[in-house]
Amino acid sequence: MSKAYTAAVETAREYYNSDDADNFYHIVWGGEDIHVGLYQSDSEPVRDASRRTVEEMTRRLPNLNADSRVLDIGAGYAGSARYMAHEFGCHVTALNLSEKENERGRQKNREQRVDHLVDVIDGSFEELPFDDESFDIVWSQDAMLHSGDRRRVLAEVARVLRPGGYFIFTDPMQADDCPEGVLDPILERIHLETLGSPGFYRRALGELDIEEVEFVDHSEMIAAHYGRVYDILTEHEADVARSVSPDYIERMKRGLQHWVNGGRNGHLAWGIFVFRKPA
Fold this sequence. Notes:
By secondary structure, the chain is α/β, with parallel strands linked by helices. It contains 11 helices and 9 strands. The chain has helices at 7-17, 19-29, 46-59, 79-88, 99-111, 150-160, 184-190, 198-207, 220-235, 237-240, 246-264, and strands at residues 69-73, 91-96, 118-122, 135-141, 161-170, 173-174, 211-217, 268-269, 271-276. It has a 7-stranded mixed sheet, with helices on both faces. Helix 9 (220-235) runs antiparallel to helix 11 (246-264). It is globular. The chain starts with 6 loop residues before the first helix and ends with a strand.
């Protein structure tokens, strides 16, 4: 590998660099967003619900404008970065571990004529290649679960965030009262030992003197989102199978069902967290 990534991050990198994963996310999500959506109906397209998450997150940030310097960690195809560039004119640095996703992101930046506002950087959020206090906003969507050292990620966020700056993120989490062992099928699927939890993020960021502003709880969207992806995959399996291997599709369907079960059983949490670094 080209960089000294930790084992968990390298596992995620290899997965998202695979042709199967890249084609699956590009086809099912439309190549812009690959995070959990906010759904208004059971039949809503994944792309629309995923974009609604981005819109809702920007509404939670005061004074997002052309002067804002934003860092998106775990940026996927940099769809959120492009949205912010289009809507607010701000400069966004999109850091992501998958070189394959990043090439798609750079191409879309050029196609949408925002490549002067969105920089796509290959790298890990466990070691951010930026100076201290470089950004007004650090943004992340459903990415930090892939770290084997989330405290290190949060410490890096605190380091690069300017005083008075905001850290806004979503992440699939285990509920604070989740019984031990019930999420093992999910953890085995994504090759991790743990998930974060709302309590973990509150404690870890509090220890870094980063203050909680709000948590908008949308935990019901875990089952809604993964269930919707499952339905789309099964409905369009023949089309997806032209670009994605049968083995990947079967493993994906099993994995999606585990997420649905965990959400319906109340063992998973998800929502929009907003924190602020004191001025």
